[in-house]
Amino acid sequence: MIKTFRGTLANGGQNTIRLSTKKGKIGYSIKKFEIMPNQPGVVSSEHIVKIHKVSQTTIDGDIDFADGNLLAAAFVNNNTNASAYPVAVTSIFEQEMFNQDVFITHTVHSTAANCNYYIEIETMTLTDNEAAVSTLRDIRLNPQVGG
Questions:
Q1: What is residue 92's three-state secondary structure?
Q2: Residue 107: which of 141, 58, 44, 34 has the closest Cα?
Q3: Is 9 exposed, middle or buried (0-12, 13-18, 19+ CB in 10 A)?
Q4: What domains are there in the chain, each with its CATH number?
Q5: pLDDT, tens only, 36-71
Q6: Cα(71)–Cα(94) distance, rounded to whole angstroms?
Q7: pTM of the predicted model, to two decimals?
């Protein structure tokens, strides 16, 4: 089954996508991730939107593929000059399976413009062992999950 989520984030904003269940027997993986400035062509801006396994205390524009908590990242350059070519790049780590809440953050350069996001997440039933491994990994990465 596919679940969809959409929303708008302000600069420096963070939204929580509630996915966790009591027993952790539902697993998820991101299949589609799109972003779009809320004022395309009106305000020049560069948007960076990231999806993390853990809540972020610092929201910045750094993208580090070595970060084990990063599930996806997207960048879009929105230019008011019609002759400028827009740049849009999205990377999704589809093989990353998780069974807890995820956190989506937004940073914008040049302006304080908002950005829209759209996410499609595939659900799957986990065995007891898969659920335990996923939950323990999430607790190790984010101690607040267990408490």
A1: strand
A2: 58
A3: buried
A4: 2-142 (2.60.120)
A5: 988 887 778 889 999 999 999 999 999 999 998 999
A6: 8
A7: 0.84
